[in-house]
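#help-structures

NK: newbie question. if I give both the sequence and a SMILES, will the prediction place the ligand too? trying with zinc ion
OV: yes, paste both and it writes out the complex. here, I ran yours:
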Amino acid sequence: MESERTKAACHGSGMRGLCAFRPSSTTRHTSMTAIRSGLRAPAGALLGLSLLACRVEPAPAGSAGALPDDLMGAGRTRVVLLGTGTPNADPERMGPAVAIVVNGAAYLIDAGPGIVRRAAQAARNGVDALRVENLDAVFLTHLHSDHTLGLPDLIFTPWVLERTAPLRVFGPSGTRAMTEHLLSAYEQDIRIRIDGLEPANHTGWQVDAREIVPGLVHQDENVRVTAFPVRHASWPTAFGYRFDTADRTIVVSGDAAPSESIIEQCQGCDVLVHEVYSESGFARRPDVWQRYHASAHTSTRELGDIATRARPKLLLLYHQLFWGTTEEDLVAEVSNHWNGLVASGKDLSVY
Ligand SMILES: [Zn+2]
Ligand SMILES: [Zn+2]
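OV: that's the protein plus ligand as C-alpha cells.
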C-alpha cells in the first residue's frame, strides 16, 4: 500500500501547503478537484486558505475516492476556523475560536484572542454571517484564558461597531461571574461611550450570560446545540458541543483528554473538530508537562482511536500542539490509527 502513496503539492490557486493523498491513481484528480471546489464560498468566492494537510484514504466501495460534496461545502452549514491556536503565541494562529455558520447566522465556540479580527477577515473573504456587528452568540467550552481572552473583545468591539443585541454567552459555572467582572472592568468605557459624544446604543454592550448543564442548551430555526461534558485536567466542568442543522452534524471537542462523550455524540457525524497534540513531540516534553498534558489533552494516537470509534466523515484538527513537529507529521501520526479523512485546520479554513 505504501508504494501507492502519492504526494501532491497544492501551491497556487489560493491553496497553500501540502496535501498527502493515498487514493488510487485513477481517483487522484477527482480528489484534488473536490478539495479545490470545497474552498468556495456559497457565492462562489474563493475563501482564503484551507486544507494545509489532508489525507484521503481509499474510499469505501462505490464512492471512488472523491471527497463527498457535503464534506466540502456543498450544503448550507459551514465550519469556519477563526482561531486554531493554543496558549502559545503563534502569530499564524489566533486563540481557539470556531464558527458554525448556517442560513446567515453565526454561532461561535470559544473566544480566543483575535476572534473579532479573524471574524472580520472571514467576512471580508465572503462569509457575511461573520461581519462583526452580527456576532451575538458564543458557546464557551471552559474558562481557560486561551479560550476566553477574546471575550471582552467580543462584548465591546461589535457594540462599538453598532451591534444593538446583547451578546449571548453560554458556558459553564463561572461564566456569569467572568462576564460581570469584565463589564466592571470596562465600566468607564461603557459610561463614556453612552454619556459622551459617541453615538453609542444603550443595549449592545450588555451580556446575556447563561450557565448551562449538559443537554440541549439552545435551539432556534437554524440549529440545535447540545453541550456534553469532557475531561480536561482539573477543570470541574468543560464542555464539548454538538451542532445539528438541517444538513450537517458537527461536533467540537473543546479542550479534552480522551472522552467517551465525544465518541457518543459524533457517531458518524459530518465533521469532528478535535484538539490534538503530537505523540512524538510529547516524548520530548518535561515530565511535569507530560503529566499535565496527558490529563488535559488528546494525543495523535488517542485521537486516531477516538475517530475509529466515532466515525466522522471528516476529522478536523485544531488547537494543535506541535512541539517541534509539522502539520504533515501530525496528520501522519493520526492516520497511523485512523483510516478516514483527516485535515489539519488553519485559521480561516472553511469546511
Ligand atoms: Zn486551550
Ligand atoms: Zn483548556
